[in-house]
Every structure is written in C-alpha cells, then in structure tokens.
Write a structure and sequence with these properties.
CATH class of the largest domain: Alpha Beta
Structural class: alpha/beta
Number of strands: 24
Radius of gyration: 22 Å
Shape: globular
Largest sheet: 7 strands, mixed
CATH architecture of the largest domain: Alpha-Beta Complex
Helix content: 25-40%
Strand order of the largest sheet: 9-8-19-20-21-18-22
Number of domains: 2
Length: 452
C-alpha cells in the first residue's frame, strides 16, 4: 500500500480495548468511504472498520512498474457521464480521460467490427421493448427467439449478460437489462488518471481531516444490536459501540450462509433483510492483466490476419475460454486485460492462477494465430484478480433479478433507525454495478442518518 494512504489510516487497537463512536461503518469501499466522509464532515464521530489491509474494496489500483498508467485489478472505467463520480473527481482535482476506441469480435476465424456482428439484434431490442411482464432474460430468449435461426443471437445475448453484467442469464431481470441498454452512452467512457485509488485516498483524507477514524485488518463476524445501540468485536480484539451502524459490505459477503466461513451474524437476527439480500443477484468475475514485451496485436502479422490494422482496437470479444479482452486505448501500451464473467467465472472460482494464465495465453494464441509458448516467452508480467475467490468480496458486482425491486425496498429502509445498509446493490438507477452506484448508496445512507 502506498505510504500516502498509510499516513491517513488509524491502525486498530488491540488487547480488548473499548471504543465508542456515534456511527460505525463496516467496509471501506466506495460506499463506506462516501458515507463516512459525509457524516464526518457533518460533525459526527465516525469509525470505519475494514477487513483488508487497504482501503478501496473492489477498487484496487497497483502501481505499474513500467511507469505507464497504473494497473486496475478492480474497477477501471467510468461508464458514462456519471454525476457523483465526476463531481468528486473534479472537487479533488483528479483528472479523467476518454477511454473510447473501436470494438471488434473474433468469430469463426474472422475479425469483425463490433457494430455489425450480432444478427437480429434490432429485432431483439424491439421485442424486448414490448415486454410487459418481467422474466429472466434467458426465459425471454427461449420464448421469443426459439430455433436454429436465432441460435447466434441467443448465444451473443447470454455472453453479453454474463460478460458485461457478470450476471446469470437464468436469473437476470429482462426489465433491468432493457433499462440499462436503452440508457447506455457508448461514447462516454473514461478512466481515472492515476487510477481509482486517487479517489479513495481523497475520501479517506477527508474523513480523517474531519476527525473520523479508519481501522484496517479489522474483520467483523458478529454484530450485536438493539435500538440505538450497536456493539461489534473485531478480529483484533477491539470492541466498538455506536448509536448507528452502516453495513457497507459487498453483497457477496452478506450472502454467505450463517455458519459458513466468512459469514456475518446479526444478533438478534434480521430475517427479512437477510431474505432480501439473498434475493438479489451478485456476479462472478476474473480479471487478468497481461503485459507483453510489445503490443503484438498492433503488428503487421495481426494486420494481415485481420485484414485491417487493430492499432486502435479497444475491445475484442470472442468465444474463447477467456472471451473478452481490451487494451488501454486510446493509449498505446503493451497491456492486454482479459475478462470472464457470470456463471463461467463462478465455475473457475477455485481454479489456480497458473491454470487461468494458461487459459488466457491459449485464448490469445487461438485468436491471433500465435503459439502459446511464444506468447508466454513474450510475457513480461501478469496479475490475476479472481474476485469470486476473494473472501472479502465473494464476487464482482450486483445485478437485478426479477424480484430485485422488492428486495431493494426492504434493504433501503433502516432497521429501527439503527442499522443501515449501503452498497452498489441498492442503487436503482441505470448505472448498476458501478463506483457511481456505490457512492450514491453511501451518500443516501449518510443523509438518512443526518436527518434523525
């Protein structure tokens, strides 16, 4: 962790000490930090407990030893002109830059421009727009687009839902996906200059400057509560008490079954909220960062293979084991990022990183007609983030099931004005599963407490 972060973090206490605060927040991801910053600046005494040895949660930026743009193992893009994210970056003086570039697909031995590769896509969107009763997107496809004629369409939609939304097509809401697709702005994609870590450093700095505390390596397993009285014991032996609690943990952590490793227990139980938590969808993803000695996808051999230069390629979709790849375009670097999401990623949760690397290189070898061993020899460094196997994440980000609206309503209401929930899974806008969604949820939870 960079020294600049360490200097603004208060390390946890030991030896069974007691700490009282106004508001306790569990989780120092985007939602937890945003809530803490809002409350601390309002004069509240705030303590944040974070299980990891760093802040940020599913924002995880690594310094790039090659001196180029930092490496994002987690959140990487600003997907659209998202007001809260961009206003915070502007306030902090953090730059962000366009990340738009051409999209390609490799299929049946051919490279194709993305905008032309899905046959019957317009018919699919029109039919989806007429849907009156929500159902899973898989059920919708099987009902409206049966038969061999639409096989490729069904495969493409399922792959997109699994890859982009990290969702299980058998569970993902057709209404939610329709709303998302109708509101997308493909031209408005950005990266944070210097990495998303700069935003988390800014938020943490504001918290500490306003008198708040952030404790790292503080794993919480049990939450004891009654109205306006919270007590938790962290893994380092410190007992924290507060009047209110914001639970800003990833949905995947909250979905761990009671009694299983990593489960959070509420004493007394909160069955209605736990039922709602388990109703929502939480995706799986593995992200692979590969740095090569040069950008071979821009060379003459690839140009001859594709029939056109791929020097401005942003995204590349395929049906390979690791199906989705992107570059750092419009920057020209030697980095390729691989991505597999949804049920296929969940099946690889226990796969060793060496095997995931092998599958990644084999996928690229198949696409670019190179030898797997040749690519391995040209590999300078690699990083693999298996977020589903991460005990403090248990997955990537939330998606809407058919029952999501009712579940979100339950979770958006505090329990006796004492326990509040915050996280991207509570967001009800079109930017599901984003940093924006997490920030918005954290802000809303904090504002509810300020009104008490």
């Amino acid at each position: 962790m960079p020294h600049s972060i360490i200097t603004i973090i208060t390390l946890p206490n030991h030896n069974n000490t007691m700490e009282d605060t106004d508001i306790l927040i569990i989780g120092a991801g985007a939602a937890g930090l945003m809530a803490a910053r809002t409350l601390a600046k309002a004069g509240k005494k705030v303590t944040v407990l974070e299980a990891r040895d760093r802040i940020g949660g599913r924002i995880h930026t690594l310094e790039n030893t090659s001196g180029q743009q930092p490496l994002e193992l987690g959140a990487e893009f600003i997907h659209g002109d998202l007001p809260l994210t961009k206003s915070l970056l502007d306030e902090a003086g953090i730059a962000y830059e366009h990340a738009g570039a051409s999209m390609w697909r490799y299929e049946d031995g051919e490279f194709k421009q993305n905008e032309t590769f899905v046959e019957h896509w317009d018919a699919f969107l029109n039919k989806l727009g007429e849907l009156e009763q929500d159902m899973s997107i898989n059920c919708f496809l099987l009902r409206e687009f049966k038969g061999e004629k639409y096989r490729r369409l069904r495969e493409s939609v399922r792959q997109f839902v699994s890859g982009y939304d990290n969702a299980d097509p058998k569970k993902a809401s057709s209404f939610s996906l329709r709303r998302e697709w109708q509101s997308e702005d493909d031209g408005a994609q950005y990266r944070v200059a210097g990495g998303y870590i700069k935003l988390t450093i800014f938020l943490a700095g504001e918290i500490v400057a306003a008198g708040g505390q952030i404790h790292l390596n503080a794993v919480v397993k049990k939450i004891y509560w009654q109205q306006h009285c919270i007590k938790v014991v962290s893994s380092v032996g410190c007992t924290h008490s507060a009047k209110q609690l914001i639970v800003a943990l990833p949905l995947g952590v909250l979905q761990v079954n009671a009694g299983d490793s990593g489960a959070i227990s509420f004493i007394p139980p909160i069955p209605d909220h736990i039922k709602a938590i388990n109703t929502l969808g939480f995706g799986a993803v593995i992200k692979i960062l590969l740095e090569f000695d040069e950008a071979f996808w821009e060379d003459k051999q690839t140009e001859m293979l594709a029939g056109k230069s791929l020097s401005n390629m942003g995204y590349l979709f395929s049906t390979e084991e690791i199906p989705t790849w992107w570059t750092q375009a419009p920057r020209h670097t030697n980095m390729l990022t691989g991505w597999i999401g949804g049920p296929e990623a969940a099946e690889k949760a226990d796969t060793h990183n060496t095997e995931i690397l092998r599958q990644s290189l084999q996928s690229l070898a198949n696409i670019f007609n190179r030898g797997e061993e040749q690519l391995k020899q040209r590999l300078v460094s690699y990083h693999i983030a298996n977020w589903t196997a991460d005990e403090f994440a248990r997955g990537s980000y939330a998606y809407d099931t058919v029952e999501a609206n009712e579940a979100r309503f339950v979770l958006s209401e505090p329990i006796q004005d004492t326990i509040f929930f915050a996280g991207e899974y509570l967001y009800n806008g079109t930017a599901m599963g984003t940093v924006e969604a997490a920030l918005d949820s954290g802000l809303r939870a904090a504002e509810r407490i300020k009104q008490l």
